[in-house]
Amino acid sequence: MFSIVVISGVCVIVLSTLDAANSERGERASANVEDDDKGEDRKKSWDLDGLWRRLEAAVERGELTAEEARERYAVALEKADVEEDDDVKLREFRKAVVQRAMALPPEEWSDELKRAILRAGWDLAEFTEGVRLRQQKSQDGDAQRGERASANVEDDDKGEDRKKSWDLDGLWRRLEAAVERGELTAEEARERYAVALEKADVEEDDDVKLREFRKAVVQRAMALPPEEWSDELKRAILRAGWDLAEFTEGVRLRQQKSQDGDAQRGERASANVEDDSPNAISGESIAEPETAVKQSSWGQVKRKSVRTE
Predict the structure, then answer these.
(1) pLDDT at 293 over 80
(2) Long-range contacts from 222-226, C-beta under 8 angstroms, 24+ separation
(3) Beta carbons of 5 and 12 less than 8 angstroms apart
(4) Can you tell me whether residue 2 is helix, strand or coil?
(5) What value, to the nearest 5°, has the Cα angle with vertex 124 and ends 61 and 91?
(6) Concatenated DSSP letters of 221-269
(7) Burial of 227 (0-12, 13-18, 19+ CB in 10 A)
(8) Beta partners for 10?
(9) What pTM was computed for the model?
(10) Stretch 14-40: mean pLDDT, rounded?
């Protein structure tokens, strides 16, 4: 393609090609992107979102490829003399991106989320593979899920006076909700509840309440075959600090022995119920739960705490 320009009566023929034009356009786009923040104080004008929008616009105009835009953004992150709060914003932005990505399988990610991943400075393919692996581990009961649930459950009663705010029913409801959300297994919930019983600085009369609660649970459990126990009764068994499987087996054996008319074992079971030990159901039949509950009543925990102090 030829163009003729007349300057002061002199004809100058300028030869240009489409390739040269494209090259110049690319150079201009590059200069525009790189020099956008000139003339201002860098700390005040540095704007990661604004930079990415300019890079994204350049990609849409065909002036840069997506890979080139990502590389420029990564370089900008390294070179930027950002203020501390900008660094915090970047971490928060990345955290939000990870949370959004983990909430969906990669196949369902929106284009906007993929762009956000690039804006965070990550390689899309590598990030996708990493998220896929983490999601698989989460489905298999990855420990991180339990740790997050642990932090939520353990911190629920902070900021209040422990004696006034300690609420076993409320704690169990939170643990139960965590189980329903899949953040804890039933066994993990039982163990956390047992630890809470040991650590709680409860008053002496709470020890009496626990014994009465356990006695009532035993009586309700013995009144029905395990197959007819309600979900509420099973939750009460866990709240009492017992292992559900061991408790069930113990009750089943005790009920069978009762049907067989074993008087001696019946007397021992009755004594155990009144004594309210962790073996309260079937005497020798139920192994003590492998938790601190088997060793310490609430009152004992408090007395031990006082001696330690």
Answers:
(1) no
(2) 222/251, 222/254, 222/255, 222/281, 225/252, 225/255, 226/251, 226/252
(3) yes
(4) strand
(5) 100
(6) HHTS-GGG--HHHHHHHHHTT--HHHHHHHHHHHHHHHHTT-HHHHHHH
(7) exposed
(8) 7
(9) 0.27
(10) 51
Tally of CB atoms within 10 A around 95: 11
CA dist 226 → 190, 241, 250, 265 (Å): 19, 18, 10, 20
Has residue 4 got a pLDDT over 60? no
DSSP assignment of 272-285 equals: HHHHT-TTTTTTTS
For the chain, the 3-state helix, strand and coil shares in percent, each to the nearest 5, are: 70, 5, 30
289 close to 241: Cβ distance less than 8 angstroms: yes
* Separation of alpha carbons 211 and 138, rounded Å: 38
Distances from the Cα of 246 to the Cαs of 212, 227, 292, in angstroms? 21, 15, 16
Residue 286, SS3? coil
pLDDT digits (tens, 9 = 90+) for 128-140: 999 998 888 877 7
Q: What is the mean predicted confidence (pLDDT) over 191-208? A: 68
CA dist 165 and 35 (Å) reads: 58
Q: Kindly report, residue by residue over 87-113, the tens digit of the pLDDT.
A: 777 788 888 888 888 888 999 999 888
CA distances from 87 to 34, 55, 91, 125, 290 (A): 21, 20, 6, 25, 46
The full 3-state SS of 154-217, as one line of letters, equals HCCCCCCCHHHHCCHHHHHHHHHHHHHCCCCCHHHHHHHHHHHHHHCCCCHHHHHHHHHHHHHH
In the DSSP assignment, the letter for residue 288 is P
> Does the structure show a pLDDT above 70 at 247?
yes
Residue 290: its pLDDT value, please? Answer: 40
Query: The tokens of 148 are what?
Result: 């997050």
- Write b or e for each residue in 205-215: b if 16 or more Cβ atoms lie within 10 A of its Cβ, otherwise e: ebbeebbeebb
Confidence of residue 73 (pLDDT cuts 50, 70, 90): confident
Q: Which of 191, 190, 192 is nearest to 238 (CA)?
A: 190
